[in-house]
Amino acid sequence: MKPEVVKLEVVEDYIGLVQLANPPVNAHSQQLLAEVAWTFDTISDRDDIRAVVFTGEGKCFCAGADIKERVGTERKDGDHWQNSRRAREAYHSIMECQKPVIAAINGPALGGGLALAASCDILLASEKGCLGLPEINVGLLGGGRHTKRLFSHSRQRRMMLTGLRVFGPELYRLGVVEECTAPEDLMEAAMAIAREIAAKSPVATKLAKHALNQIEEMTLRDGYRFEQTMTGQLGQSEDSKEAMRAFVEKREPVFKGR
Known about the structure:
Blueprint: E1 6-12, E2 14-20, H1 30-44, E3 49-56, H2 67-71, H3 79-95, E4 101-105, E5 108-110, H4 112-118, E6 122-126, E7 130-132, H5 144-148, H6 153-162, E8 165-167, H7 168-173, E9 180-181, H8 186-198, H9 202-215, H10 220-235, H11 238-249
Parallel strand pairs: 2-3, 3-4, 4-6, 5-7, 6-9
Antiparallel strand pairs: 1-2, 7-8
Helix pairs in contact: 1-3, 9-10
């Protein structure tokens, strides 16, 4: 695939930047969804990327479903199921990406755009960034389960039933995002976290993200046992041994990803 509406570049050592580029509002078209899945699957296999910043070009992160595409296209048998599957795979390609993904929410992230953001590992927003579920206003549903990962019971239902948008300052107050910045400071804040992650062992971050994904819906006992298993696996790596040696020798570790 040669992506046209999703851009990927390595902007610093071991840091990838993914940008949605489907003007004017980075709508959640079928092409964009397919390219998101392909891009994050590709990142999983690239040794030159250890952390990813994910954002949207222009004034929007992603404004959700492309309503014009839906209205202007005759639905054929199987289209609903194919389109739904493509959306699910796009979201899960971010969650299952073997590199940590930082969402830099620069503007509206609505409906499917909220689901893209909620699938990331760490979220930041500018003061103009917002999360919302406007589907109730255009004859659709969706995004409620992803919203539940971020918001309380009452706020999630209010958003889904009214289309309420929650902006950066309130997202920060609620603990949904790590930082709320001025628009011009958002990317540097996201890059600072990406640099910190990229400096760690890629073996450790890969196993840590895998563990976090798996334990999310486990019991305390099963979840901690799974983490212990991952710790044992990590301990066999060269990176783990190098981290311990560097600690004892009071120097910075040199990780090789093995």
